[in-house]
Structures are given as structure tokens and as C-alpha cells.
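Quick question about two entries, pasted in order.
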Amino acid sequence: MKISQKLEYACRALAQLAKHHDGRTITRLEDLAQREDISANFLVQILNDLRRGGLIESRRGKSGGYLLLHQPDSITLRQIVESVDPSLLQCSVAPVGESGDFVRRAWLHVSEELISTLDKITLESMCRGKEEAMFYI
């Protein structure tokens, strides 16, 4: 699966904010950019998308920066995707031709499964490395 750089950086920035989350601690843009090796100019665009998506808050001024608006265990990967790269969740297959409807239904099923999985993964689980049970054959 090809994930956009923007989405990857959004997840990494949110992971940094989650690591320092106590509801009060503000993280400066420069610190986020340095810790995750992301261009500050690109990161500010991503953080603006996350702010508009209701996931983070920004504070202006000398002691300004960013912090999570919610607990890391209540932010899902789906919310992150919807804030930064919503086209990933859209099915673009048109029901054209004799087989178009069948093909579209198959991709809609894949899309629904993806959304369901994204709803189950929280920011906390990404940060803490908590994984679902692994089954081996």
C-alpha cells in the first residue's frame, strides 16, 4: 500500500505530540520538525490540516506550539487519514462496462474493510507499539 508522505508525516508528528501529552504541554513546531526530521515549512501545512480536522490545537506567540485536543487512545487512524489524505478512503472505480459494477463492489468491500481497520487503530496503539494478537500457522 502506498501511503502519502503527508500522511506518514502527520502520523509521526501526532506520535510526538502523544508522547508528551498531558493536556497542557505545548510542543514547538521546530522541536517537532527536528525530532521527526521533517521540513518545518511542510510540517506547518500538515499541522494546519490536523487542526482543521479537530485533532490538535495551536497556540500562537513566543511560547506557542501544538498539543493534542483529545487523549491519544481516542484518536483513530481513520480520523488522521480523514484530516490529511481523505482521498485514500474514497473508491474511485466507476461502474462502467459489463463488469464495472462487479469490480466496483469488490473495491467498495476493500474500502469498507480498510475503514473498519483504521477505526480500530488508535494513536496510542501506534505510539506504544501495542499490536493486535498475532496468529501463526
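Here is the second entry:
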Amino acid sequence: MSAVQAGKVSDSGGRRPHDHGRPHGGGRRTSGKRPGGGVLGARPWTAAVFLLPALLLLGALVVYPVVFSVYRSLFDASGTGFVGLGNYGAMFSDDGIRTALRNNVVWVVVAPTVSTVLGLIFAVLTERIRWGTAFKLIVFMPMAISMLAAGIIFRLVYDQDPERGVANAVWVGIHDTFSEPAPFPGAKPRPRSGLAPSGGGAFTTRATVRAASPVNLPLVAVQPGDLRGARAAAAAGSRPGKVTGTVWLDFARGGGGRPGVIDGNEKALAGLTVEAVKGGRVVASATTAADGTYALPADRAEGARLRLPAANFAEAYRGVDWLGPALVTPAVIGSYVWMWAGFAMVLIAAGLAGVPRELLEAARVDGAGEWQVFRRITVPLLAPVLVVVLVTLMINVLKIFDLVYIIAPGSSIRSANVLALQLFQSSFGTDVDEGLGSAIAVFLLLLVLPVMYVNLRRIRKERRR
């Protein structure tokens, strides 16, 4: 037997296992790819047909508007006069747009940070309570509400009238718990009664007083609701060693009566403070009784002037002007946080579910407290999720429009202005200037691009891991 023939016979005398079924041509086995095809055997033009609708939509809805906005921003309001970068210069010289830019900075710094921090707190705390799922559902529910509906809700929440606005109803309740309300807000002396305004809402007698003759102090403009349970006014008599008098409502229902004289059906004003003032200093004070009378020690009050301090007549506390120029931006940010804290909580809770529990338990066994575990282990492990939430909310905040437009009243709209709202007003408001509006749109796009770039870099890093 030759060497060639011996090589064709296996040790067992049969054909070699790897030679069984091999084509006589001896070539390598070919893959399942079609000639000129892709991984799935698809031709390039087939993939292009499937991608074409998406590319057309992307071009029509994204690329064309961006290119046209850049082009339009180089022309004036009429669209016929080329102004170059003039609209961009006008944008930074306009006070309203500068206010919008400052407010956008506040929005980008505050709103995403507060929403993310609250979401982190809610996600961590709900892991330790049995009704955590129900709590998450309640916190996440505002996400099901549109911005329009949320704006209407918070416009009512921030209403100045405590009878309508929930925020002021709570605030007024807290204030009135610790501060005594004025007994007769809005009341004032009857004209030609001897009392004159003395600054700050107080009223002082024009003449000094003596113990021999009572000093009556008639008032008007008392609210009917403040007289519930009031007794009839009584004339104060002379008392040894006292300066006396009566404070009453010098008004009789149905008319009649004599000005400056206590008539039988006129009401006493109880609980008013009466002060004796000498040289600008209070030397004595008293509070009117249920029948309106008061008594001051004559050794200190005689020769002084009597004053009814402003605290007797201060208007009822109406709460905080949430939608005023000073607080309108924080108020609108509060409504945004109410909506988006639930979104942050759900994403962070999903990331928290993937944190290795053995690391947390090992830290606790080593003696770490809950705050140390949270700060040194939980937060670093959740850092990628926190960045995702923060970047997403930053992009969302740069486009905020509807909440500001609905919540801020006309008197405060300039103070609450943001770039997206200014874009709408410049393009479609009373002074239509589409060139300036396009410039604002391009500038807003440039502000969003760095945030998007950071987000894309983060996504690429995660894919490499």
C-alpha cells in the first residue's frame, strides 16, 4: 500500500469523520449570505426603501425648520430686508429677552436639581415602607396631567384670595395662629370727631385729655361681620384718678342718631387698644371693655394725647402674593417640580432596584450608618441614573412655555418670561417680528446642543462598558 492510500484510511478502517459528506471539490463551506447582500441577505436598496419614510419625516419636521429658522433670522420683520446678525444683537439688547435669559438660567439650575433630589429621596424612602407602591403612584400621577391642566390648577392654588387659593389659605391659617388679627380692620374715626391721622394707620386726639371729662372716640366704617355679639355702647362716667371714655360705632342702622353722641342702639367696640402718648412716648394704655368703655390712670395719662394704634385697624392678612413680580418664577417652578418629581422618582427607583444589596449589607455590618451608606454607596452607584434624569429635565426645562404662559398673570408675565415664551410672543404676539423670533429659536437650539452632546457622550461610554 502506498503512503497516499494509507492516508485515506482511518484508524478504524473507515472514512474520517470530518471527511464525511464533504464535496469532492475540497473547497470551504460557504455561509448563508447571498452574494452582495447584508447580514440578513437584504440588498442595500431594500434597506433604503424602509428608511426613506423616516428620513423624509426627519427632514420635513427637523432639518428643514432648523435650516429655515437660521435663514429667516438673517432678515428683518418683513422678511425682505437682509440684516445679517442684527436680530441677534437686538435680542441681547432687549430688556424683556435679557429677563427671559436670566429666568432660563434659574430654571435650568433649580428645577432639574430640586426634581432630581426629591425623586431620589422618594425612591429611597419608599423602599422601607409597606405602602411604597401606593405612594409612588400618587407622586407619579401628576405626569398624567397635561401642562395646560396643571397650569390652570396652580393658577387657582396661587390665587391671592384665601377663600379660593389653597396656598394662601394654608399660609393665612398659619399666620393667624401666631399673630392676633386686628379687632376692627378698615375702621376709621368719624369726620370732625377730634381724632386725626398720626402716621402708619394710627389716629391721635388733637387735644390733650383731662380726668374730669370723659373722652369719647367715635368710629365708622366697621365691617358688619366684626360686630357679631357686640353689646350696646355705654357712656363712661367720671371716675376719681382715671381718664375715661368710650369707643363705639357712631352709626345707627336705618339712619337717625346724632353724630358724636352715643345713641341707645349704637354698638360698642370692644377689644380696642387706647394709648396715652406724651412726647412721642406711650405712658399708659388700656383695652376697651365689652361696653366700649376704657379707663387710664390719671397720674400718667392726664395732659397726654390719646392714640388708637394702627394695630386696631390693620387690614386682615391676605397671604402672600405668589404670582407677583417677586415670586412668580419660584411659584411656577414649584408647579413644575410637582409634575416632574414623580418622573425622576420612577427612573431612580428602577436604578435603585439594580443596586447590589450585598454591598449595602456589607457596609452596615462594617458599622456604617444609614446616612453613610446612602452618601458613600447608594448615591455613587446611582450616579449614571441621576445624570440621565438631570440631563433629561434640563433639556425639558429649556423648552418650558405653557406653565409660564398660563400661570403668570398679565401683570407679572414680563417678570416670569422665559426664552420659549419670548419666542412665541416675538413671532406671533402683538409686535410680530419673525426675524427676531427665529433668532431666539436658533439661540435656544444652541443652548440645547451642549446638553445633548453631554447626553450622547454618556450613552457612548455606557455602550463601551
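Reply: The beta strands are 188-189, 195-197, 203-205, 217-220, 242-249, 273-278, 281-287, 293-297, 305-308. The two ends are 60 Å apart (CA to CA). Hope that helps.
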